[in-house]
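Make up an example, fold above all:
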Amino acid sequence: MSQTMDAKDAVYGSLAECFITISGRRYNFMSLTEFESKWDVTIKEVPILGKVGAGHKPAGGKGTWSGKAHYNQSVFREMANHYQKTGEMVYFEIQVSNEDPTSSVGRQTVIHRNCLCDKFTLAKFQAGEELLDEDLSGTFDEWDLPEKFKELNGFATN
């Protein structure tokens, strides 16, 4: 009989933590409401003599991140202002941890290094009773996985 995952082992997203470190100053980026990072592997096509199809080989990668935050902090606008006045774009780190005490998988932490923003919301408003938020996105050069989820019972089959 096949084993299935217990529903309690799904990780509840609202319990995540996110910290950013800019120029040695660490911020609890609690105003984020969404975040996702991706590592896209660059795959090169390899022509091979004597084969009809091409082979493929990994040849580098690119990290991207995106998120949505409540419009209630100025730290990224300060970064944009510094860049437009000096030409110096400040690199920073983003640390994201997921841990749901009801799940048996434990905690996972990913630290994104050499992050940059690729666009900035400078000012905005919306009449009415809407809460203001802002989209954030950028790149990162490398990442670390200092904490990883435990394997669920039944996940590994050998």
In short: The helical segments are 75-86. The radius of gyration is 20 Å.
